[in-house]
Amino acid sequence: MPEVWPEMPEPGPPPSFQVPDAISFTLSNGMPVTLVQTGKIPLIQAQMNVRTGSAADPVGKEGLASFSADMLNEGTDSRSALELSAELLTLASSVYAGADLETAYLRLSCLEDKLDETLSIAADMVMRASFDSADVERVRTERRNALIAAKDNLRRVGARVFRRVLYGDQYLGRPTRGRQDSLERITPDDLVHWHARAWVPENASWVIVGRISPEDARELLERHFGGWTADHYQQHMALDPEAHSGGVPSAAAVEVGVGERTVYWVDRPGAEQSYLAIGHVAPAWDAELQAARVLGNMVLGGQFSSRLNLNLREDKGYTYGARSSVRGYPGGGLFMASASVKTTTTAASITEFLKEIDGIVGDSPITGEEFVAVQGRLIQGQPARYEGLSGVLGQFASADALQRPEGWLSGYADRIGGVVLAGAQEQLQSVLKPESLAVVVVGDYEAVGAEVEALGLGRLVFLDDDGAPVPLGSGGP
Question: Does a structural domain hold residue 4?
Answer without folding.
Answer: no
